[in-house]
């Protein structure tokens, strides 16, 4: 499933990376501890977090994530947006908490398979 399909299905707001919404999402990871995400997430995953600082872009780039979803209407910093745009990593915002958005994405991805 492509990021743009998830955006439409869940009404997510795109903060940056509009040119990369064609990326394929192969799974997801929910977590706020950067070392945990680095150790356990995979390439192609969409990362669900409440972290907003620019280090999330470094982790997403290193792990080759498809994109990042910020929960609870958290807004990324300007530096985060600039870095994500340069790295072509979409940052999306949801007003839902982590539990709900994770479940919805899981349902979308498993229904597609």
Show the helix and strand layout:
Layout: H1 3-10, E1 13-16, E2 27-30, H2 34-40, E3 45-49, H3 55-63, E4 67-70, H4 78-87, E5 91-93, H5 98-112
Tell me the distance between the termini: 9 Å
CATH architectural grouping? 3-Layer(aba) Sandwich
Radius of gyration: 12 Å
How many strand segments? 5
CATH superfamily: HprK N-terminal domain-like
Strand line-up in the sheet with most strands: 1-5-4-3-2
Provide a compact summary of the structure.
The chain is of the alpha/beta class and 113 residues long.
Plain-language structure description:
- With 113 residues, the chain is α/β, with parallel strands linked by helices.
- It has a single domain (3-112), classed as HprK N-terminal domain-like (Udp-n-acetylmuramoylalanyl-d-glutamate--2,6- Diaminopimelate Ligase, Chain: A, domain 1).
- It is 43% helix and 18% strand.
- It has five helices and five strands, in the order αββαβαβαβα.
- The chain has a five-stranded mixed β-sheet with strand order 1-5-4-3-2, sandwiched between helices.
- The radius of gyration is 12 Å and the shape is globular.
- The termini are close together.
- The model has no long low-confidence stretch (mean pLDDT 97).
């Amino acid at each position: 499933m492509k990021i743009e399909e998830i955006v439409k299905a869940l009404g997510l707001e795109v903060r940056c990376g509009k040119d990369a919404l064609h990326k394929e999402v192969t799974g997801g990871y929910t977590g706020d501890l950067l070392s945990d995400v680095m150790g356990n997430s995979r390439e192609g995953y969409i990362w669900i977090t409440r972290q907003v600082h620019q280090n999330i872009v470094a982790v997403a780039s290193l792990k080759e994530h498809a994109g990042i979803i910020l929960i609870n209407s958290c807004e990324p910093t300007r530096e985060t947006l600039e870095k994500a745009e340069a790295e072509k990593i979409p940052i999306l915002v949801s007003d839902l908490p982590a539990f709900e958005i994770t479940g919805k994405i899981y349902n979308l991805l498993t229904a597609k398979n």
